[in-house]
């Protein structure tokens, strides 16, 4: 039996193509799978899970789960599924329904992450530079505190 395919929403297809370094596009990712996994991680970080709606059947077409497995991304798919459902049965390799549910959760997080990326990258000429800025901002984000400013540390 063939493995399921990871689908991409039709309205996000152009963004995904622009994120990949292929066919003249100078995107930051090597493959569609890389871009989709990054988007899913971003969607999970912001807890943004969006149903797909209309599916893209042209470039990029639905991507075989085998591609994600060969690149080691099956772990991310499983982690998102278990974090969402809190049910270890979702990891079952014998239950076809569990696999379909894992793929659906992953697709919806990726779609949410692509929405976030679309907003963040709006107006950007070079997506690589903008993504680096986004990642740097996350890395060096200062934690807001509710404490009053303490001048004693300067004494």
Detailed description of the structure:
- This protein is mainly alpha-helical and 155 residues long.
- The chain has one domain (5-123).
- 50% of the residues lie in helices and 3% in strands.
- It contains six helices and two strands, in the order βααβαααα.
- Strands 1-2 form a two-stranded antiparallel sheet.
- Helix 2 (32-45) packs across helix 5 and helix 4 (74-85) packs across helix 5 (96-121).
- It is globular.
- The N and C termini lie far apart (71 Å).
- The model has no long low-confidence stretch (mean pLDDT 83).
Briefly, what is this?
With 155 residues, the protein is an all-alpha fold. The protein has helices at 13-19, 32-45, 65-70, 74-85, 96-121, 127-139; strands at 5-6, 63-64. It has one domain (5-123).
What does the secondary structure layout of this molecule look like, with pairings?
Elements: E1 5-6, H1 13-19, H2 32-45, E2 63-64, H3 65-70, H4 74-85, H5 96-121, H6 127-139
Antiparallel strand pairs: 1-2
How far is it from the N-terminal to the C-terminal residue, by CA? Answer: 71 Å
Q: Helical percent range?
A: 40-55%
Q: Count the domains.
A: 1
Number of helical segments with 4 or more residues: 6
Instruction: Output the strand order for the largest sheet.
Output: 1-2
* Derived structural class: mainly alpha
* Unreliable stretches covering 5 or more consecutive residues: none
List keywords for this structure.
155 residues, mainly alpha, two-stranded antiparallel sheet, 2 strands, 50% helix, globular
């Amino acid at each position: 039996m063939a493995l399921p395919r990871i689908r991409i929403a039709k309205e996000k297809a152009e963004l995904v193509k622009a994120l990949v370094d292929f066919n003249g596009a100078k995107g930051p990712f090597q493959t569609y799978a890389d871009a989709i996994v990054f988007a899913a991680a971003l969607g999970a970080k912001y807890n943004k899970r969006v149903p797909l709606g209309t599916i893209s059947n042209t470039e990029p077409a639905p991507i075989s789960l085998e591609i994600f497995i060969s690149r080691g991304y099956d772990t991310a798919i499983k982690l998102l599924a278990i974090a969402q459902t809190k049910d270890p049965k979702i990891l079952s390799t014998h239950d076809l329904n569990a696999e379909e549910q894992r793929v659906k959760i992953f697709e919806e997080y990726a779609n949410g992450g692509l929405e976030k990326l679309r907003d963040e990258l709006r107006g950007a000429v070079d997506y690589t530079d903008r993504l680096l800025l986004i990642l740097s901002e996350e890395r060096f984000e200062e934690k807001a505190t509710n404490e009053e400013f303490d001048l004693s540390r300067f004494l």
